[in-house]
Amino acid sequence: MGVRKRAPGGGRKPLDPGRARSAKVMVRLKPDLQQAIEGLAKRNNRDLSKEIRDALYYWLYRSGRPELHIGSLTSLIEVLVTQIEEFTDKRWLDDPLTGAAVRELVSELIRHFAPKPNKPVTIPRALSRIADGIIVLAERMQRDLKQHKEKESPDLYLHITASGVGPVVGVQGLVLAQIMKDLGGGLERNQPRRRHK
User: Fold this and answer.
1) What pTM was computed for the model?
2) pLDDT band with cut points at 50, 70 and 90 for residue 197
3) Which of 2, 31, 56, 136 is the most exposed place for a label (fewest CB within 10 A)?
């Protein structure tokens, strides 16, 4: 009996190096959580494993990276915005009144906890550019998502001002993609609408 040869291209395809080195973790999930994750994966048109991995990366970035005082502030802001939306019964992204309330009351919340200066202070322009950089990166990711270029996106998005003045702003690509899927672009949302004659 002759030696049996495998047909060309037969057998399991080799895994990519990153996945081949990955470890399996057994986790028990309650039925409602499993259904929620499966529903999210279906809406995003992705397999369950990738959805869970991305969720873990996202959670680790948001919860593990910030210092405790930063995480505590974002948690209070989350409570505040949730209460505002429950009161107006609208999302701050969709409703101008709710958006204005969030903008004003979040500022009031931070003013309460931040140390008050004894004399007037001026925020250096270089420091102000941090917000500019974050907005630029966020809108760039939103553009890439609209053009279906998420897979081509870099692991780390960087923004450096043209003049080189001010800190370099960087955001992890995977985290930024998930944030912008939820948030949407501010430029498009706040564009003046043309009036039809």
Assistant:
1) 0.59
2) very low
3) 2
